[in-house]
Every structure is written in structure tokens, then in C-alpha cells.
Amino acid sequence: MNVVSLMHLKDQEERLVKAFPNLNFTFYKHPNEARLEVLEEADILISYHDELNETFLDKCHKLKLIAWFATGINNLPLEYIGNRNIKLTNAKGVHATQIAEYIFAYILYDIKQFKESIDAQDNRLFDTKIKPDTIYNKTILFLGTGMIPQRTAEIAKAFNMKVIGINTNGHSVKNFDEVYSIDNRREVLNKADFVVNVLPETEETFHLLKQEDFITMNKDVHFINVGRGTVVDEEILIEALETGEIRYASIDVFEEEPLNRNSRLFDLKNITITPHITGKDMHNTERCTEILITNLNSYMNNVESKLLNEINMQTGY
């Protein structure tokens, strides 16, 4: 079996070779470096690059599995992959710890008024009139109840926060006090002090949030997006912030990336912008490799039906 990595895995390369001496591994730095004759014989591809389009995958005549070393798969040609009966796994859960930390970094930066303290420091002021708030007894609402919200909910409960979740059908989830279906979200959006989007990009979630959603929210709400930028039209988000429909936003993901330097989002004072970095961590490759090792063992033992993090091509997650 031929395993072709289209990215350097550093010390994980040696780990894989030692763990599976009967597999043939080839490692490249980038898809553009991959030799055609190697791709033609590849059974498994490892990557997270946008270059994995239909034209590229057409070269991989024997391909059975794509091990995607990222969570979001919205740039992959899912219909094509499904039609070829190629299995696809992603890195779901790998980013839960660091994204949960970022969510609370956004929240505490806001609620503890760190910006005001930093501004005072820059102006050599000792401003004792700054009045930070507390998150004790406040309500956090998650759009999505997967592994990232579940990890974040654990932390929220430690702060004695109320946790509300929104998912496809309103099924209950551990550490969530209330869960509602996505169709009924407007019944509860106004209860939240913090609304956090963690939804993936699918046909159902594309521009899911409308102006009515932001109007429905508590006007003092802090909206956080660490899911996908396409969940809301950028102009609707800008209008919500400009008109005071919502008080503040922390945004890590955008409809178009990199964010255009001329975007009006940069002009707003009531927003924190980070450049799609909440999922980054020095241990990500190691954690993704753990998933790959589990799935390679399944392949070696002919239990392909039990692949970890296998994507359903119909739902897109």
C-alpha cells in the first residue's frame, strides 16, 4: 500500500515509517512537488492543501482514502470524491483545546476591559475608573454542539455560566443546560450574553445568520465566530455592529481570506479580528497523526467501516 503525504510531517514521518514497515511512504513538502508516477500509484493521500481539486485527484487512479489534516473540508470536491468512492477523514477534535482557549481569551479580553487598560498604559495613565465585569452567571450560546463547543462548555461550567446549544434537531449534549434545533434558534438567541458560531460550512449553514438573527440577539451580546466566515454575509455583520444591533464581535474566520485590507471590518472599533489562527497549535501534526495511525491500523486489519472521523459525503461533516 502506498501512502503519499503532500506535506512534511517532521518527526511524525519517522514515527509512521517505524509503525508501519510494510507500507510504502513518500513525503513531499507541497502537492506541486509530487511526481505523477507516485500519485498514480497512491492508495492514501495526506494533505490539507487547496490544490486537491478534481484535476489533481484525477491523477490518483488508485486512491482509496484522503487523510485530511484539518477540520474544514468545504474547499474539497466532495461530490467528486464521493462518486469515486474515496473515503475522507478529517482532523475533527484536534483543535478543540486551543479553540476553546481562544474563545475564552476573546470573552475575557472584552469583559475584563483589557483594551481600556492597554490604552491607558500606552498613554501613561493609571486609570482606576475602568470597571470590568464578570462572566459569573452569564449565558453562552453555541451554534453547533460538536467537540469544540463541548470542550468550551466544560470550561464555561467551571465559570458557573449557563450553556445553551443549537444543533440540527435539538438533541441533548453533556454540559449543555438547554439545546434547541437550528430552526428554533431565534427563540433563544436573546437569552445569550455570548453567541459563538462553531458550525462548519455546508449548504445548510451558508449565510445561515440573517439580519433578523442579529436583531433578535441581546443588544449587549458579544458575537464570536470561530467556525466558518460564510455563516453570515459580511455586510450584515458590519451593519449589526455599526447600528448597535450587537455590542461587540470577535472574528477569526471570514467569507474571503485573507481579509481584504479595504474591508470595512477594519474600520470598526467594536471588533477583535484574528487571522484564522484559533486552531493553530505546535502539536497539531502530532494529533492528526494519531488519527491517521488509528485509521491505518483499521485498514491493515480490514475494518475500513470503523474509520475515525470519516466524513459523510451527503451531510458534508
Automatic annotation (TrEMBL):
D-isomer specific 2-hydroxyacid dehydrogenase NAD-binding domain: residues covered: 105-277
Domain D-isomer specific 2-hydroxyacid dehydrogenase catalytic, residue spans: 9-302
UniProt keywords, alphabetically: NAD, Oxidoreductase
Enzyme class (EC, first level): oxidoreductase
Signal peptide: none
A Pfam family: 2-Hacid_dh
Top-level taxon of the source organism: Bacteria
InterPro entries: D-isomer_2_OHA_DH_cat_dom, D-isomer_DH_NAD-bd, NAD(P)-bd_dom_sf
GO molecular function: glyoxylate reductase (NADPH) activity; NAD binding
Listed EC numbers: 1.1.1.79
Family that this chain belongs to: Belongs to the D-isomer specific 2-hydroxyacid dehydrogenase family.
UniProt name for this protein: Phosphoglycerate dehydrogenase
